[in-house]
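Below is how a single chain appears once it has passed through the pipeline. First comes the sequence as given, then the structure the pipeline wrote out for it. We keep one example in the README because the format questions we get most often are answered faster by looking than by reading.
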Amino acid sequence: MTIRIVTDSAANSFEKIIGGVEHVNVPLTITVNGQSWSDDENLDMDNFLLALKNTKTNTSSACPSMGSWLTAFEGADEIFVLTITSALSGSYNSAVQAAEMYLTEHPKARIHVFDTKSAGPQIRLLASQLAVLINHGYDFDEIIEMVDEQIKHTGLLFVLEELDNLANNGRVSPTIAKLTGLLKLDIYGTASPAGELEMLGKLRGGKHMYKKLVKALEKQGYAGGRIFIDHVNSRDSAEQMAQAISEAFPSSIITISTCGALCAYYAENGGLMIGFEK
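Resulting structure:
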């Protein structure tokens, strides 16, 4: 029997194996100046970010097609799908429709699609937890129940230096985006229980910022454990964040990675996304 984890590219994970379990990534697409960028391991991130920075026209993102999902499902008997929050993308709905079609053609297969209510490193953290449950031999329905619970016990904190794309897409006020840029402020926030972007406050950059962000993590329920930090062209900031977390929580287990195109599209240059266990 083939068991497979399938994520969309908002998970920032292009590995073929997660925790010993087969993994397939399904890319979203971002359009900039009429050019479509597939969010996969072959994307040229430097040129993508440059195109975003220089664009004078509206940009957009598109969820994976049903065909892309069906290709990812093909050949598997038990399939667990993790998508970006349905509040930001149609990826979840597309995956659900594809799952229904796949089951029509493969009635003995089993598929469950999780709306993670999040993005980036929180999805990847959930995928790694899912792999542990699969390896421990829990049955399909038990895994669904436990992952649904894990979604409630993981979280996301993001830190943004630039807000241009969020403003262009109506996620934040253009006035706020302009003022934060002029005042050189960073915005930090989270994914709400409904899976929407929730701004928590403003920070002035510098070393003290990271201690304040650790306090924000604590307030959201972090008390030590695993943390995944994804960054957009900001390895130094990610390492400073990791150091601040380690100083406050010596038992923390921290992994630093880079954002894919979809997360970079929202987090923008200098952005951090932090997925953590509660």
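The first strand starts at residue 3 and ends at 8.

See the next section for the split statistics.
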